[in-house]
Design goal:
Length: 414
């Protein structure tokens, strides 16, 4: 790659990286894309984040060398996934028009999530732009809910197979995801890179906030009462019901049971699951111990993580588990299900522990064992922070620039 400034198009058709995580379809992917884009811009690249507009086309400057471009496609307003798929071709045409209107082409087009790839792979191939795909989740592996349209699931899987076969480069965020892609999508190893997420260790820092009293007072929690945190969109895949059942079991193991704070809002179409959680807490007689907090902005989340004793990650699978890193950076150990990306995002005995069971009583025993040994918990808080310091967005950004450079050089050499 030459000395010219690299121009990068990062596409997230279905969601804006600026959306608050825990709302609508926004989650760890939004945090990761925005953090990577900021880092690429800091390291000298010019980055455009390209999304579908729900209203009118626009361009917003986020920072030096970093813009958000909203393009029209489909009907106005938010669209369900099946309608977004139908709008993908039109969105791709809008991306093509955008590129054609620019004096200098993009050096790389990087699609995040399968819908973005469906929309922009043909554009990149037609215009000769190196194309990179990051999936974040795979249809064949995600625990899909029974209400999912089988035709959409099948269509998505076929699309992911095609993207894996035709992309110039594929970026996975964990070894677990890479292994899954090799097995399920048969992605070629020479086109596959692993770049783990980073974490903002300045934002997520227990010493910075000293927020335990503030958060607990706001929740009506006694100062010596443990606080458990669950963070993520409220949906069956995240399995917040396991955290509630774990709390119920914990009440049988201690005279001072923890309070559980559930941070996040229901994913559109999953509102019934939220009410199932409310009813579950009531049926178990622990409504007074459960707080449904809603979505928090990044600083609020950092304060809450710093104030909590443990973070529970109850989902059955995670591509990586950014929440686990943010919690560890906050000095708050993690209790997570043993599997998928959690095997890398949680260091056993250093940043938390992994539970090889879906039995709530087993979870409660693990949680209570950690909470009961305050000396060991203090040491675990220190080692959690040390573990998280090994991850940075600067390192992830440098790795991604290396992928781009390698692809451009490889294509130019042909």
């Amino acid at each position: 790659m030459g000395d010219a400034q690299l121009r990068v198009a990062m596409v997230t058709m279905h969601t804006s990286p600026l959306d608050r995580p825990g709302t609508r379809d926004a989650g760890g992917m939004n945090v990761a894309v925005l953090s990577l884009a900021r880092e690429l811009a800091k390291q000298g690249a010019e980055v455009d984040l390209i999304i579908r507009s729900e209203t009118t086309a626009s361009k917003i400057k986020i920072a030096d060398r970093l813009n958000l471009i909203e393009l029209r496609s489909g009907a106005f307003g938010a669209l369900p996934k099946d309608e977004l798929y139908l709008a993908a071709e039109e969105f791709g045409d809008s991306v093509r028009s955008l590129i054609s209107s620019q004096g200098e082409p993009y050096g790389v087009l990087h699609a995040h999530y399968w819908l973005s790839g469906v929309a922009t792979l043909p554009v990149a191939k037609d215009l000769g732009i190196p194309f990179v795909q990051t999936f974040h989740t795979l249809a064949a592996l995600k625990e899909l809910k029974s209400s999912d349209d089988p035709s959409l699931v099948s269509r998505r899987h076929r699309a992911e197979m095609e993207l894996a076969a035709k992309a110039d480069g594929i970026v996975a965020v964990s070894k677990a995801e890479a292994n899954s892609m090799n097995g399920v999508l048969r992605a070629a190893g020479e086109r596959l890179w692993i770049i783990p997420h980073g974490v903002d260790t300045q934002l997520f820092d227990r010493d910075r906030w000293n927020s335990e009293q503030e958060v607990k007072t706001g929740l009506g929690v006694e100062s010596d009462q443990p606080l458990l945190l669950v963070v993520g969109r409220v949906q069956p895949h995240k399995a917040q019901h396991l955290a509630i059942r774990c709390l119920s079991e914990a009440t049988q193991l201690t005279s001072k049971p923890p309070v559980l704070a559930i941070v996040g809002e229901p994913t559109p179409g999953e509102e019934s699951y939220y009410w199932e959680l409310v009813d579950l807490a009531a049926d178990l007689g622990i409504s007074k111990l459960v707080r449904f907090v809603g979505a928090l902005d990044r600083e609020q989340l950092a304060k809450w993580m710093a104030a909590s004793d443990l973070t529970l990650l109850t989902s059955q699978s995670e591509t990586f588990g950014l929440v686990a890193l943010e919690s560890a950076a906050s000095g708050t150990p993690v209790v997570a299900f043993k599997g998928s990306g959690m095997l890398e995002a949680v260091s056993e005995g250093k940043s938390g522990t992994l539970v090889d069971s879906r039995d709530p009583r087993q979870w409660a025993k693990v949680v209570q064992r950690i909470l009961d040994d305050r000396e060991a918990l203090t040491q675990l808080r220190r080692s959690s922070r040390e573990f998280a310091l090994g991850y940075s967005w600067a390192q992830a950004g440098s790795g991604l620039l290396g992928v781009y450079s390698a692809l451009i050089d490889r294509i130019q050499a042909k």
